Amino acid sequence: MNAQATLHSRSFWSAIGGLVVLAIFAMVATRPAADETLRPSDMSAPELPALRGEETAILTEAPFVPPPITRDYATVVNVELETVEVKKRLADGVDYTFWTFGGSVPGSFIRVREGDEVRFTLKNHPTSIVAHNIDLHAVTGPGGGAKATFTGPGQETDFTFRALNPGLYVYHCAVAPVGMHIANGMYGLILVEPEEGLPEVDREFYVMQGEFYTEGRYGEPGHQPFSYDKALAENPDYVVFNGSVGSMVGDRSLQAQVGEKIRLFVGNGGPNLVSSFHVIGEIFDNVYPEGGTTVNRNVQTTLVPAGGSAVTEFRADVPGTFIMVDHSIFRAFDKGALGMIEVSGHATAAIFTDGGAAAAGGGH
Amino acid sequence: MLRLRRVGRVLVTALLASSGSAVEGQAPVRPAAEAVVVPAGRYVPLFAQPGAPREVAVDAFRMDVHPVSVASFLAFVQATPAWRRDRAPAALAGADYLGDWASADDPGGLDPDRRHPVTRVSWFAARAYCAWRGGRLPTTDEWEYAAAFDESGAVAAGDPDFNRWLLGVYQSRPSSDALPPVGRGVPNGLGLHDLHDLVWEWTEDVNNQLLTGAGRDDRGIDRQLFCAAGSTDATDLTNYAGFLRYGVRATLGGGGGEPGVGFRCVY
Asked: Looking at the predicted complex, does its ipTM rise above 0.95?
Protein backbone atom coordinates (compact mmCIF):
# COMPACT_ATOMS: atom_id res chain seq x y z
CA MET A 1 0.00 0.00 0.00
CA ASN A 2 2.74 2.47 0.78
CA ALA A 3 5.35 3.63 -1.70
CA GLN A 4 7.94 1.23 -0.33
CA ALA A 5 5.66 -1.74 -0.72
CA THR A 6 4.78 -0.65 -4.23
CA LEU A 7 8.41 -0.54 -5.20
CA HIS A 8 8.96 -3.91 -3.63
CA SER A 9 6.07 -5.40 -5.52
CA ARG A 10 7.49 -3.99 -8.72
CA SER A 11 10.85 -5.63 -7.98
CA PHE A 12 8.94 -8.79 -7.22
CA TRP A 13 7.27 -8.78 -10.61
CA SER A 14 10.46 -7.94 -12.45
CA ALA A 15 12.17 -10.78 -10.56
CA ILE A 16 9.43 -13.12 -11.75
CA GLY A 17 9.95 -11.78 -15.25
CA GLY A 18 13.66 -12.45 -14.93
CA LEU A 19 13.00 -16.03 -13.84
CA VAL A 20 10.74 -16.55 -16.84
CA VAL A 21 13.47 -15.25 -19.14
CA LEU A 22 16.00 -17.55 -17.47
CA ALA A 23 13.66 -20.49 -17.83
CA ILE A 24 13.20 -19.81 -21.53
CA PHE A 25 16.93 -19.42 -21.91
CA ALA A 26 17.50 -22.75 -20.18
CA MET A 27 14.96 -24.48 -22.41
CA VAL A 28 16.56 -23.02 -25.50
CA ALA A 29 20.04 -23.85 -24.32
CA THR A 30 19.16 -27.51 -23.97
CA ARG A 31 17.80 -27.77 -27.50
CA PRO A 32 19.90 -29.83 -29.95
CA ALA A 33 22.78 -27.81 -31.37
CA ALA A 34 21.68 -28.76 -34.88
CA ASP A 35 18.73 -26.39 -34.59
CA GLU A 36 20.33 -23.24 -35.90
CA THR A 37 17.16 -21.18 -35.80
CA LEU A 38 17.03 -20.78 -32.04
CA ARG A 39 20.53 -20.43 -30.68
CA PRO A 40 20.82 -19.07 -27.16
CA SER A 41 22.61 -15.99 -28.47
CA ASP A 42 19.51 -15.08 -30.46
CA MET A 43 17.43 -15.09 -27.32
CA SER A 44 19.75 -13.30 -24.91
CA ALA A 45 20.63 -9.65 -24.56
CA PRO A 46 23.13 -8.02 -26.91
CA GLU A 47 26.72 -8.30 -25.76
CA LEU A 48 27.35 -5.50 -23.34
CA PRO A 49 30.69 -4.06 -22.33
CA ALA A 50 31.90 -4.79 -18.80
CA LEU A 51 31.25 -2.01 -16.31
CA ARG A 52 34.19 -0.50 -14.44
CA GLY A 53 33.77 1.81 -11.47
CA GLU A 54 31.04 4.28 -10.75
CA GLU A 55 30.63 8.02 -11.08
CA THR A 56 28.11 10.82 -10.65
CA ALA A 57 27.02 12.65 -13.77
CA ILE A 58 27.91 16.31 -14.11
CA LEU A 59 24.70 18.16 -14.96
CA THR A 60 24.62 21.61 -16.54
CA GLU A 61 22.07 24.31 -17.15
CA ALA A 62 21.65 25.58 -20.72
CA PRO A 63 23.53 26.93 -22.62
CA PHE A 64 26.33 24.97 -20.97
CA VAL A 65 27.28 21.38 -21.68
CA PRO A 66 29.14 18.92 -19.43
CA PRO A 67 32.73 18.25 -20.53
CA PRO A 68 33.42 15.50 -23.10
CA ILE A 69 33.85 12.01 -21.71
CA THR A 70 37.44 10.86 -21.76
CA ARG A 71 36.84 7.32 -20.48
CA ASP A 72 37.42 4.47 -22.94
CA TYR A 73 35.34 2.01 -20.93
CA ALA A 74 31.75 1.74 -19.71
CA THR A 75 30.88 2.62 -16.13
CA VAL A 76 27.96 3.06 -13.77
CA VAL A 77 26.70 6.64 -13.91
CA ASN A 78 24.45 8.00 -11.17
CA VAL A 79 22.07 10.69 -12.34
CA GLU A 80 19.85 12.58 -9.93
CA LEU A 81 17.29 15.04 -11.23
CA GLU A 82 14.70 16.97 -9.28
CA THR A 83 11.44 18.25 -10.70
CA VAL A 84 10.68 21.75 -9.43
CA GLU A 85 7.79 24.09 -10.19
CA VAL A 86 9.12 27.65 -10.33
CA LYS A 87 7.74 31.04 -11.23
CA LYS A 88 10.26 32.77 -13.49
CA ARG A 89 10.63 35.28 -16.28
CA LEU A 90 9.29 34.23 -19.70
CA ALA A 91 9.79 37.66 -21.27
CA ASP A 92 10.36 41.16 -19.93
CA GLY A 93 7.48 41.85 -17.54
CA VAL A 94 5.98 38.41 -18.13
CA ASP A 95 6.17 35.58 -15.59
CA TYR A 96 5.18 31.96 -16.02
CA THR A 97 5.01 29.02 -13.62
CA PHE A 98 7.46 26.64 -15.26
CA TRP A 99 7.50 22.95 -14.43
CA THR A 100 11.17 22.00 -14.69
CA PHE A 101 13.80 19.30 -14.45
CA GLY A 102 16.37 20.89 -12.18
CA GLY A 103 14.89 24.36 -11.79
CA SER A 104 15.28 25.74 -15.31
CA VAL A 105 14.03 25.28 -18.87
CA PRO A 106 15.32 23.27 -20.60
CA GLY A 107 16.21 20.68 -17.98
CA SER A 108 19.77 19.82 -17.00
CA PHE A 109 21.98 18.41 -19.78
CA ILE A 110 23.01 14.81 -19.09
CA ARG A 111 26.10 13.29 -20.76
CA VAL A 112 26.92 9.58 -20.66
CA ARG A 113 28.82 7.13 -22.85
CA GLU A 114 27.51 4.30 -25.01
CA GLY A 115 27.41 1.14 -22.89
CA ASP A 116 27.14 2.97 -19.56
CA GLU A 117 24.67 1.78 -16.97
CA VAL A 118 22.64 4.76 -15.83
CA ARG A 119 21.16 4.65 -12.33
CA PHE A 120 18.54 7.31 -12.44
CA THR A 121 16.92 8.94 -9.42
CA LEU A 122 14.01 11.31 -9.87
CA LYS A 123 12.97 13.52 -6.99
CA ASN A 124 9.85 15.66 -6.97
CA HIS A 125 10.32 18.74 -4.81
CA PRO A 126 8.03 18.94 -1.74
CA THR A 127 6.62 22.26 -2.93
CA SER A 128 5.43 20.78 -6.22
CA ILE A 129 1.69 20.85 -6.76
CA VAL A 130 1.44 17.87 -9.13
CA ALA A 131 3.03 14.50 -9.86
CA HIS A 132 5.85 14.17 -12.42
CA ASN A 133 7.98 11.51 -14.09
CA ILE A 134 10.57 11.20 -16.85
CA ASP A 135 10.62 9.48 -20.23
CA LEU A 136 14.16 9.54 -21.65
CA HIS A 137 14.28 8.75 -25.35
CA ALA A 138 17.76 7.27 -24.74
CA VAL A 139 16.18 4.40 -22.78
CA THR A 140 15.53 0.99 -24.28
CA GLY A 141 12.60 -0.15 -22.15
CA PRO A 142 8.88 0.41 -21.64
CA GLY A 143 7.90 4.03 -21.30
CA GLY A 144 11.51 5.19 -21.29
CA GLY A 145 11.36 5.12 -17.49
CA ALA A 146 8.05 6.94 -17.25
CA LYS A 147 6.23 4.36 -15.19
CA ALA A 148 9.14 3.57 -12.89
CA THR A 149 9.58 7.26 -12.07
CA PHE A 150 5.98 8.26 -11.38
CA THR A 151 6.67 10.56 -8.43
CA GLY A 152 4.34 12.57 -6.23
CA PRO A 153 5.31 15.83 -4.52
CA GLY A 154 8.02 15.17 -1.91
CA GLN A 155 8.65 11.63 -3.19
CA GLU A 156 11.61 9.95 -4.87
CA THR A 157 11.84 7.05 -7.35
CA ASP A 158 14.61 5.35 -9.31
CA PHE A 159 15.31 2.99 -12.19
CA THR A 160 18.31 1.70 -14.11
CA PHE A 161 18.93 1.48 -17.85
CA ARG A 162 21.77 0.66 -20.21
CA ALA A 163 22.63 3.33 -22.77
CA LEU A 164 22.66 1.03 -25.80
CA ASN A 165 22.40 3.53 -28.66
CA PRO A 166 24.64 6.57 -29.12
CA GLY A 167 22.92 9.82 -30.03
CA LEU A 168 21.39 13.04 -28.75
CA TYR A 169 18.06 12.34 -27.11
CA VAL A 170 15.20 14.34 -25.66
CA TYR A 171 13.79 13.57 -22.25
CA HIS A 172 10.45 14.87 -21.01
CA CYS A 173 7.74 14.42 -18.41
CA ALA A 174 5.07 11.94 -19.44
CA VAL A 175 2.40 12.29 -16.76
CA ALA A 176 -1.10 13.06 -18.02
CA PRO A 177 -1.92 15.60 -19.26
CA VAL A 178 1.39 15.07 -21.09
CA GLY A 179 0.95 18.06 -23.34
CA MET A 180 0.56 20.41 -20.40
CA HIS A 181 3.64 19.08 -18.59
CA ILE A 182 5.73 19.55 -21.74
CA ALA A 183 4.15 22.91 -22.52
CA ASN A 184 5.15 24.06 -19.04
CA GLY A 185 8.81 23.34 -19.79
CA MET A 186 9.43 19.73 -18.78
CA TYR A 187 12.05 18.66 -21.34
CA GLY A 188 15.80 18.46 -21.73
CA LEU A 189 18.59 16.60 -23.54
CA ILE A 190 20.68 13.54 -22.76
CA LEU A 191 23.73 12.85 -24.92
CA VAL A 192 24.95 9.28 -25.27
CA GLU A 193 28.45 9.68 -26.69
CA PRO A 194 29.55 6.94 -29.08
CA GLU A 195 32.28 4.62 -27.75
CA GLU A 196 34.90 6.40 -29.83
CA GLY A 197 33.71 9.83 -28.60
CA LEU A 198 32.78 12.85 -30.70
CA PRO A 199 35.36 14.76 -32.80
CA GLU A 200 37.08 17.45 -30.77
CA VAL A 201 35.71 20.98 -31.02
CA ASP A 202 36.49 24.22 -29.20
CA ARG A 203 33.02 25.13 -27.90
CA GLU A 204 29.91 23.16 -27.15
CA PHE A 205 26.53 24.74 -26.35
CA TYR A 206 23.07 23.52 -25.36
CA VAL A 207 20.17 25.15 -27.20
CA MET A 208 16.63 23.87 -26.85
CA GLN A 209 13.50 25.24 -28.42
CA GLY A 210 10.04 25.11 -26.88
CA GLU A 211 6.81 27.02 -27.20
CA PHE A 212 4.57 28.49 -24.52
CA TYR A 213 0.81 28.92 -24.60
CA THR A 214 -0.33 31.76 -22.38
CA GLU A 215 -3.74 33.17 -21.59
CA GLY A 216 -2.44 36.65 -22.46
CA ARG A 217 -1.06 37.53 -25.88
CA TYR A 218 2.69 37.98 -26.53
CA GLY A 219 4.13 40.59 -24.19
CA GLU A 220 1.03 41.01 -22.01
CA PRO A 221 2.58 41.74 -18.62
CA GLY A 222 2.11 39.86 -15.38
CA HIS A 223 1.88 36.21 -14.47
CA GLN A 224 0.46 34.25 -17.40
CA PRO A 225 -1.24 30.89 -16.87
CA PHE A 226 -1.11 28.05 -19.40
CA SER A 227 -3.84 28.23 -22.05
CA TYR A 228 -5.35 24.87 -22.86
CA ASP A 229 -7.27 26.30 -25.81
CA LYS A 230 -4.18 27.76 -27.49
CA ALA A 231 -2.18 24.56 -26.89
CA LEU A 232 -4.94 22.50 -28.47
CA ALA A 233 -5.00 24.87 -31.45
CA GLU A 234 -1.15 24.64 -31.61
CA ASN A 235 -1.09 28.42 -31.63
CA PRO A 236 1.59 29.59 -29.17
CA ASP A 237 2.28 33.17 -28.21
CA TYR A 238 5.91 32.38 -27.40
CA VAL A 239 8.44 30.26 -29.28
CA VAL A 240 11.76 30.50 -27.46
CA PHE A 241 15.22 29.03 -27.08
CA ASN A 242 16.30 27.99 -23.58
CA GLY A 243 13.12 28.87 -21.77
CA SER A 244 12.64 32.59 -22.24
CA VAL A 245 12.66 35.43 -24.73
CA GLY A 246 16.19 36.81 -24.92
CA SER A 247 17.86 33.93 -23.07
CA MET A 248 20.89 34.25 -25.37
CA VAL A 249 21.07 37.89 -26.44
CA GLY A 250 23.16 40.84 -25.31
CA ASP A 251 25.20 39.93 -22.21
CA ARG A 252 23.87 36.41 -22.40
CA SER A 253 24.98 35.78 -26.01
CA LEU A 254 27.07 32.67 -26.63
CA GLN A 255 30.75 33.60 -26.97
CA ALA A 256 33.37 32.26 -29.39
CA GLN A 257 36.57 33.29 -31.15
CA VAL A 258 37.37 33.41 -34.84
CA GLY A 259 38.86 30.10 -35.92
CA GLU A 260 37.06 28.02 -33.30
CA LYS A 261 34.91 25.02 -34.06
CA ILE A 262 31.48 25.30 -32.45
CA ARG A 263 29.10 22.46 -31.77
CA LEU A 264 25.47 23.13 -30.92
CA PHE A 265 23.43 20.40 -29.27
CA VAL A 266 20.00 21.45 -30.45
CA GLY A 267 16.80 20.03 -29.02
CA ASN A 268 13.15 20.75 -29.52
CA GLY A 269 10.79 20.12 -26.62
CA GLY A 270 7.77 21.24 -28.58
CA PRO A 271 5.17 20.36 -27.46
CA ASN A 272 3.75 20.94 -30.94
CA LEU A 273 6.00 22.78 -33.38
CA VAL A 274 8.79 21.43 -35.59
CA SER A 275 11.79 23.76 -35.74
CA SER A 276 13.64 24.91 -38.87
CA PHE A 277 16.91 25.62 -37.08
CA HIS A 278 19.22 28.07 -38.81
CA VAL A 279 22.16 30.32 -37.92
CA ILE A 280 22.09 33.53 -39.91
CA GLY A 281 25.43 34.12 -41.64
CA GLU A 282 26.79 30.61 -41.17
CA ILE A 283 26.61 27.28 -42.92
CA PHE A 284 26.71 24.15 -40.81
CA ASP A 285 29.82 22.22 -41.87
CA ASN A 286 28.33 19.11 -40.26
CA VAL A 287 24.86 18.19 -39.09
CA TYR A 288 23.92 14.98 -37.35
CA PRO A 289 20.28 15.03 -38.44
CA GLU A 290 17.78 14.08 -35.74
CA GLY A 291 20.68 13.54 -33.34
CA GLY A 292 21.62 10.25 -35.00
CA THR A 293 24.85 8.88 -36.41
CA THR A 294 24.94 9.96 -40.06
CA VAL A 295 26.60 13.26 -40.94
CA ASN A 296 25.15 15.67 -43.44
CA ARG A 297 27.60 18.31 -44.74
CA ASN A 298 27.07 21.93 -45.79
CA VAL A 299 23.59 22.49 -44.42
CA GLN A 300 21.80 25.85 -44.21
CA THR A 301 18.72 24.90 -42.16
CA THR A 302 18.02 21.65 -40.37
CA LEU A 303 14.70 20.32 -39.15
CA VAL A 304 14.43 19.53 -35.46
CA PRO A 305 11.32 17.49 -34.71
CA ALA A 306 9.21 18.05 -31.62
CA GLY A 307 10.66 15.53 -29.21
CA GLY A 308 13.82 15.32 -31.31
CA SER A 309 17.24 16.85 -31.77
CA ALA A 310 20.08 17.70 -34.14
CA VAL A 311 23.78 18.28 -33.62
CA THR A 312 25.20 21.09 -35.72
CA GLU A 313 28.86 22.07 -36.13
CA PHE A 314 30.52 24.98 -37.84
CA ARG A 315 33.81 26.83 -37.80
CA ALA A 316 33.59 30.51 -36.93
CA ASP A 317 35.54 31.98 -39.84
CA VAL A 318 34.74 35.67 -39.40
CA PRO A 319 33.85 37.88 -36.43
CA GLY A 320 30.37 39.26 -35.79
CA THR A 321 27.01 38.45 -34.32
CA PHE A 322 25.49 35.27 -35.66
CA ILE A 323 21.82 34.83 -34.96
CA MET A 324 20.17 31.50 -34.25
CA VAL A 325 16.56 31.34 -35.37
CA ASP A 326 13.70 29.05 -36.09
CA HIS A 327 13.47 29.93 -39.78
CA SER A 328 9.70 29.59 -39.62
CA ILE A 329 10.50 33.20 -39.35
CA PHE A 330 7.57 34.86 -37.62
CA ARG A 331 8.48 32.74 -34.62
CA ALA A 332 11.93 34.34 -34.54
CA PHE A 333 11.13 38.02 -34.71
CA ASP A 334 7.62 38.06 -33.28
CA LYS A 335 7.52 35.20 -30.78
CA GLY A 336 11.04 34.99 -29.38
CA ALA A 337 12.88 32.15 -31.19
CA LEU A 338 16.11 34.05 -31.49
CA GLY A 339 19.55 33.75 -29.89
CA MET A 340 22.98 35.21 -30.59
CA ILE A 341 26.51 33.91 -30.96
CA GLU A 342 29.14 36.63 -30.60
CA VAL A 343 32.30 35.75 -32.49
CA SER A 344 35.26 37.98 -31.74
CA GLY A 345 38.64 38.16 -33.45
CA HIS A 346 40.22 39.40 -36.64
CA ALA A 347 38.26 39.72 -39.84
CA THR A 348 39.45 37.94 -42.94
CA ALA A 349 38.71 40.13 -45.93
CA ALA A 350 39.26 37.22 -48.26
CA ILE A 351 36.13 35.60 -46.86
CA PHE A 352 33.84 38.54 -46.20
CA THR A 353 33.96 42.31 -46.59
CA ASP A 354 31.11 44.70 -46.13
CA GLY A 355 32.61 47.82 -47.57
CA GLY A 356 34.40 48.91 -44.41
CA ALA A 357 31.61 48.91 -41.81
CA ALA A 358 32.04 46.78 -38.72
CA ALA A 359 31.28 43.15 -39.47
CA ALA A 360 27.86 42.31 -38.15
CA GLY A 361 25.36 39.54 -38.53
CA GLY A 362 21.64 39.90 -38.87
CA GLY A 363 21.72 40.30 -42.64
CA HIS A 364 20.35 37.70 -44.87
CA MET B 1 -26.10 32.49 3.53
CA LEU B 2 -22.83 34.22 4.16
CA ARG B 3 -23.92 35.44 7.53
CA LEU B 4 -25.07 31.99 8.53
CA ARG B 5 -21.69 30.56 7.66
CA ARG B 6 -19.98 33.20 9.72
CA VAL B 7 -22.18 32.32 12.68
CA GLY B 8 -21.24 28.70 12.18
CA ARG B 9 -17.58 29.52 12.21
CA VAL B 10 -17.89 31.47 15.44
CA LEU B 11 -19.64 28.47 16.93
CA VAL B 12 -16.82 26.17 15.86
CA THR B 13 -14.25 28.51 17.28
CA ALA B 14 -16.12 28.53 20.59
CA LEU B 15 -16.32 24.76 20.63
CA LEU B 16 -12.64 24.43 19.75
CA ALA B 17 -11.83 26.69 22.67
CA SER B 18 -13.94 24.60 25.02
CA SER B 19 -12.36 21.40 23.74
CA GLY B 20 -8.98 22.89 24.52
CA SER B 21 -9.92 23.41 28.13
CA ALA B 22 -11.56 20.00 28.34
CA VAL B 23 -8.25 18.34 27.64
CA GLU B 24 -7.13 19.39 31.07
CA GLY B 25 -10.18 17.67 32.55
CA GLN B 26 -11.19 14.08 31.81
CA ALA B 27 -13.27 13.44 28.70
CA PRO B 28 -12.15 15.45 25.68
CA VAL B 29 -14.92 17.21 23.82
CA ARG B 30 -14.68 16.60 20.12
CA PRO B 31 -14.62 19.71 17.98
CA ALA B 32 -17.95 20.05 16.23
CA ALA B 33 -17.95 19.51 12.53
CA GLU B 34 -19.05 22.34 10.34
CA ALA B 35 -20.53 20.29 7.55
CA VAL B 36 -23.05 20.77 4.78
CA VAL B 37 -25.30 18.39 2.88
CA VAL B 38 -24.19 17.25 -0.55
CA PRO B 39 -27.40 16.16 -2.27
CA ALA B 40 -27.73 12.82 -4.03
CA GLY B 41 -26.92 12.91 -7.72
CA ARG B 42 -25.07 11.37 -10.62
CA TYR B 43 -21.73 12.17 -12.17
CA VAL B 44 -19.27 10.75 -14.72
CA PRO B 45 -15.87 9.88 -13.23
CA LEU B 46 -12.78 10.72 -15.31
CA PHE B 47 -11.76 7.09 -15.02
CA ALA B 48 -14.28 4.31 -14.52
CA GLN B 49 -13.45 0.92 -13.12
CA PRO B 50 -13.31 -1.64 -15.93
CA GLY B 51 -16.82 -2.92 -16.56
CA ALA B 52 -18.40 -0.30 -14.30
CA PRO B 53 -21.15 1.94 -15.65
CA ARG B 54 -19.98 5.25 -17.09
CA GLU B 55 -22.21 7.28 -14.83
CA VAL B 56 -22.08 6.83 -11.07
CA ALA B 57 -24.95 7.45 -8.66
CA VAL B 58 -23.89 9.16 -5.42
CA ASP B 59 -26.10 9.09 -2.32
CA ALA B 60 -26.53 12.20 -0.21
CA PHE B 61 -23.97 12.77 2.51
CA ARG B 62 -22.66 15.56 4.72
CA MET B 63 -19.17 16.91 4.14
CA ASP B 64 -16.83 19.11 6.19
CA VAL B 65 -16.89 22.66 4.88
CA HIS B 66 -13.10 22.96 5.29
CA PRO B 67 -10.13 20.63 5.16
CA VAL B 68 -9.14 19.57 8.69
CA SER B 69 -7.05 22.29 10.31
CA VAL B 70 -3.91 21.83 12.35
CA ALA B 71 -5.87 22.98 15.44
CA SER B 72 -8.47 20.24 14.95
CA PHE B 73 -5.87 17.57 14.33
CA LEU B 74 -3.93 18.66 17.40
CA ALA B 75 -7.10 18.16 19.45
CA PHE B 76 -7.34 14.63 18.03
CA VAL B 77 -3.73 13.80 18.81
CA GLN B 78 -4.11 15.12 22.34
CA ALA B 79 -7.27 13.06 22.87
CA THR B 80 -5.85 9.98 21.15
CA PRO B 81 -2.16 9.82 22.04
CA ALA B 82 -1.76 6.62 20.03
CA TRP B 83 -1.73 8.91 16.98
CA ARG B 84 1.08 11.14 18.25
CA ARG B 85 3.89 10.96 15.75
CA ASP B 86 6.18 9.41 18.36
CA ARG B 87 3.67 6.66 19.13
CA ALA B 88 1.86 5.87 15.88
CA PRO B 89 2.90 2.46 14.50
CA ALA B 90 5.33 2.79 11.60
CA ALA B 91 3.11 0.61 9.44
CA LEU B 92 0.29 3.15 9.74
CA ALA B 93 2.24 6.37 9.70
CA GLY B 94 5.59 6.75 7.94
CA ALA B 95 8.64 8.59 9.18
CA ASP B 96 7.34 11.84 7.68
CA TYR B 97 3.99 11.69 9.53
CA LEU B 98 3.42 15.17 11.00
CA GLY B 99 7.06 15.69 10.09
CA ASP B 100 6.69 19.46 9.95
CA TRP B 101 5.54 19.75 13.58
CA ALA B 102 7.93 21.19 16.16
CA SER B 103 7.33 18.20 18.39
CA ALA B 104 4.87 15.34 18.86
CA ASP B 105 2.36 17.58 20.63
CA ASP B 106 3.30 20.99 19.25
CA PRO B 107 2.64 21.94 15.64
CA GLY B 108 4.92 24.96 16.03
CA GLY B 109 4.61 27.64 13.40
CA LEU B 110 3.74 31.28 13.73
CA ASP B 111 -0.02 31.10 13.34
CA PRO B 112 -1.48 30.96 16.89
CA ASP B 113 -4.92 29.92 15.60
CA ARG B 114 -3.51 27.01 13.62
CA ARG B 115 -6.20 27.42 11.03
CA HIS B 116 -4.04 26.19 8.16
CA PRO B 117 -4.80 22.70 6.86
CA VAL B 118 -3.03 19.77 8.46
CA THR B 119 -0.77 17.93 5.97
CA ARG B 120 1.80 15.14 6.21
CA VAL B 121 -0.98 12.98 7.59
CA SER B 122 -1.11 9.29 6.73
CA TRP B 123 -4.23 7.81 5.17
CA PHE B 124 -4.64 5.62 8.27
CA ALA B 125 -4.42 8.61 10.59
CA ALA B 126 -6.90 10.54 8.47
CA ARG B 127 -9.34 7.64 8.68
CA ALA B 128 -8.85 7.41 12.45
CA TYR B 129 -9.49 11.13 12.82
CA CYS B 130 -12.74 10.91 10.85
CA ALA B 131 -13.89 7.90 12.87
CA TRP B 132 -13.12 9.82 16.08
CA ARG B 133 -15.32 12.60 14.74
CA GLY B 134 -18.10 10.12 13.99
CA GLY B 135 -17.52 10.22 10.27
CA ARG B 136 -15.31 8.68 7.60
CA LEU B 137 -13.18 9.67 4.62
CA PRO B 138 -15.15 10.39 1.45
CA THR B 139 -14.92 7.94 -1.41
CA THR B 140 -13.20 9.25 -4.52
CA ASP B 141 -16.60 9.33 -6.21
CA GLU B 142 -18.07 11.40 -3.36
CA TRP B 143 -15.12 13.78 -3.33
CA GLU B 144 -15.04 14.25 -7.10
CA TYR B 145 -18.80 14.71 -7.21
CA ALA B 146 -18.81 17.33 -4.45
CA ALA B 147 -15.86 19.10 -6.05
CA ALA B 148 -17.64 19.29 -9.40
CA PHE B 149 -20.15 21.85 -8.13
CA ASP B 150 -19.31 25.36 -9.24
CA GLU B 151 -19.98 28.57 -7.37
CA SER B 152 -23.54 28.75 -8.64
CA GLY B 153 -24.30 25.29 -7.32
CA ALA B 154 -24.45 23.55 -10.70
CA VAL B 155 -22.54 20.35 -11.46
CA ALA B 156 -19.95 21.82 -13.78
CA ALA B 157 -17.77 18.79 -14.61
CA GLY B 158 -17.10 18.82 -18.33
CA ASP B 159 -17.85 22.53 -18.64
CA PRO B 160 -14.88 24.05 -20.51
CA ASP B 161 -15.06 27.26 -18.48
CA PHE B 162 -15.01 25.33 -15.20
CA ASN B 163 -12.04 23.24 -16.40
CA ARG B 164 -10.19 26.38 -17.47
CA TRP B 165 -10.89 28.00 -14.10
CA LEU B 166 -9.64 24.90 -12.27
CA LEU B 167 -6.42 24.77 -14.28
CA GLY B 168 -5.78 28.39 -13.37
CA VAL B 169 -6.46 27.63 -9.72
CA TYR B 170 -4.04 24.69 -9.70
CA GLN B 171 -1.32 26.80 -11.27
CA SER B 172 -1.70 29.56 -8.70
CA ARG B 173 -1.98 27.34 -5.65
CA PRO B 174 0.19 28.25 -2.69
CA SER B 175 3.35 26.27 -2.25
CA SER B 176 2.92 23.57 0.37
CA ASP B 177 5.54 25.06 2.69
CA ALA B 178 3.47 28.19 3.34
CA LEU B 179 -0.17 27.19 3.39
CA PRO B 180 -2.71 29.88 4.30
CA PRO B 181 -5.65 29.23 6.65
CA VAL B 182 -8.62 27.17 5.55
CA GLY B 183 -11.78 28.97 4.46
CA ARG B 184 -10.30 31.65 2.24
CA GLY B 185 -12.05 32.77 -0.88
CA VAL B 186 -15.41 31.86 -2.26
CA PRO B 187 -17.03 28.50 -1.46
CA ASN B 188 -18.70 26.44 -4.15
CA GLY B 189 -22.48 26.45 -4.43
CA LEU B 190 -22.82 23.84 -1.68
CA GLY B 191 -20.85 25.97 0.76
CA LEU B 192 -17.68 23.86 0.53
CA HIS B 193 -14.38 25.75 0.79
CA ASP B 194 -10.86 24.97 -0.41
CA LEU B 195 -11.66 21.95 -2.57
CA HIS B 196 -9.21 23.01 -5.26
CA ASP B 197 -7.06 25.88 -4.15
CA LEU B 198 -5.31 24.65 -1.00
CA VAL B 199 -4.29 20.99 -0.66
CA TRP B 200 -4.96 17.63 -2.31
CA GLU B 201 -7.20 15.49 -0.12
CA TRP B 202 -7.19 11.85 0.94
CA THR B 203 -10.09 9.68 -0.16
CA GLU B 204 -11.15 6.32 1.27
CA ASP B 205 -10.37 4.37 -1.91
CA VAL B 206 -7.42 6.47 -3.01
CA ASN B 207 -5.41 3.47 -4.08
CA ASN B 208 -8.06 0.93 -4.98
CA GLN B 209 -8.05 1.93 -8.59
CA LEU B 210 -4.39 1.01 -8.83
CA LEU B 211 -4.98 -2.51 -7.71
CA THR B 212 -7.28 -3.87 -10.38
CA GLY B 213 -6.19 -6.91 -12.34
CA ALA B 214 -3.54 -9.40 -11.34
CA GLY B 215 -1.01 -6.81 -10.28
CA ARG B 216 -0.17 -3.17 -10.34
CA ASP B 217 1.60 -3.51 -13.67
CA ASP B 218 -1.22 -5.37 -15.28
CA ARG B 219 -3.88 -2.77 -15.80
CA GLY B 220 -5.48 0.04 -13.91
CA ILE B 221 -5.57 3.75 -13.71
CA ASP B 222 -1.83 4.35 -13.65
CA ARG B 223 -1.56 3.03 -17.18
CA GLN B 224 -3.88 5.84 -18.15
CA LEU B 225 -1.67 8.45 -16.62
CA PHE B 226 1.37 8.01 -18.87
CA CYS B 227 1.73 8.87 -22.49
CA ALA B 228 3.00 5.39 -23.30
CA ALA B 229 -0.50 4.07 -22.77
CA GLY B 230 -2.30 7.20 -23.84
CA SER B 231 -5.33 8.23 -21.93
CA THR B 232 -7.70 6.35 -24.11
CA ASP B 233 -10.09 5.27 -21.39
CA ALA B 234 -10.61 8.69 -19.83
CA THR B 235 -14.17 9.89 -20.19
CA ASP B 236 -13.20 13.49 -20.88
CA LEU B 237 -9.86 14.20 -22.54
CA THR B 238 -10.30 17.94 -21.96
CA ASN B 239 -10.46 17.52 -18.18
CA TYR B 240 -6.83 18.49 -17.56
CA ALA B 241 -7.56 19.47 -13.98
CA GLY B 242 -8.99 16.00 -13.38
CA PHE B 243 -5.87 14.35 -14.83
CA LEU B 244 -3.74 16.35 -12.40
CA ARG B 245 -5.89 15.31 -9.41
CA TYR B 246 -5.98 11.64 -10.36
CA GLY B 247 -2.25 11.78 -11.07
CA VAL B 248 -1.38 12.99 -7.60
CA ARG B 249 -3.75 10.50 -5.97
CA ALA B 250 -2.12 7.67 -7.89
CA THR B 251 1.28 8.50 -6.37
CA LEU B 252 0.08 8.46 -2.77
CA GLY B 253 1.09 5.69 -0.41
CA GLY B 254 -0.90 5.02 2.74
CA GLY B 255 2.03 5.89 4.98
CA GLY B 256 1.55 9.54 4.20
CA GLY B 257 3.96 12.30 4.96
CA GLU B 258 3.18 14.09 1.72
CA PRO B 259 3.54 17.81 2.20
CA GLY B 260 0.63 19.00 0.07
CA VAL B 261 -1.99 16.43 1.08
CA GLY B 262 -4.68 16.99 3.68
CA PHE B 263 -8.21 15.67 4.10
CA ARG B 264 -11.76 16.34 5.21
CA CYS B 265 -14.43 14.00 6.56
CA VAL B 266 -17.94 13.06 5.50
CA TYR B 267 -20.87 11.83 7.59
From this structure: no
